[in-house]
Amino acid sequence: MKDKLKGLFVGLIVGMMITGATAMAASGTSVNAVVKKFDVFLEGTKKNTAEGLIYNGNTYISVKDIGTTESRQVTINGNKLYLGKQQKIITENQAITILLDKIKNDATKYNLHVMVEGIEGTKYSLRAYEDFSDHIATYGFYYVDKYTGKVTKYDIVQDKEVEI
């Protein structure tokens, strides 16, 4: 009986220590802030009521509430926040089509094919090539900006992008 009581006591002590450590780790830094309802006006007209937070003299209202006030959709894409229309992103297939349209004459003359090599920053890296029965011959390397559709060519000799 003493062993069972001893085991129960040790179990309770260990459990309290774990719970206390977890609560202490989760507590972090405490701040003093005021939660308050705000009437949100746009161009002098009340559009919405939103709950905000006042901390260190700054007022924080959720972006969603501001978007609602503006009658705009709020979207997050990666680390970008959009109010209203989200910036359209060109797909890989669209980038290939854009490039083929830009080099249409040579693409037809040399029967060029295009493949996506990868993504560098905001640009698709593309390779235009001729496909022979025993090898492929690279015609050129190009970039298509995912947001603007602007096409540039990589000049191997000058080691830089050039406009085409």
Describe the protein.
With 164 residues, this protein is of the alpha+beta class. The chain has helices spanning 2-27, 63-69, 92-102, 104-109; strands at residues 34-42, 45-55, 58-61, 74-77, 80-83, 112-120, 123-131, 136-145, 151-155, 160-163. A hairpin with a 2-residue loop joins strand 6 and strand 7. It is 30% helix and 42% strand. It has 4 helices and 10 strands; from the N terminus they run H-E-E-E-H-E-E-H-H-E-E-E-E-E. It starts with a helix and ends with a strand. The strands form 3 sheets. A 5-stranded antiparallel beta sheet has the order 6-7-8-9-10. This is Copper amine oxidase.
Q: Record the strand order, biggest sheet.
A: 6-7-8-9-10
Helix percent reads 25-40%
Which consecutive residue ranges, at least 5 long each, have pLDDT under 50?
Answer: none
Give the total of beta strands: 10
From the alpha-carbon coordinates, what is the Rg to the nearest angstrom?
Answer: 30 Å
Mean pLDDT: 84
Give the termini separation.
Answer: 89 Å
What general outline do the C-alpha atoms trace? elongated
**Given the structure, what is the number of helices?**
4
| N-to-C SSE string, H for helix and E for strand | HEEEHEEHHEEEEE
Structural classification:
alpha+beta
What is the oligomer described by this structure?
Answer: single chain
Give the percentage of residues in beta strands: 35-45%
**Main sheet summary:** 5 strands, antiparallel
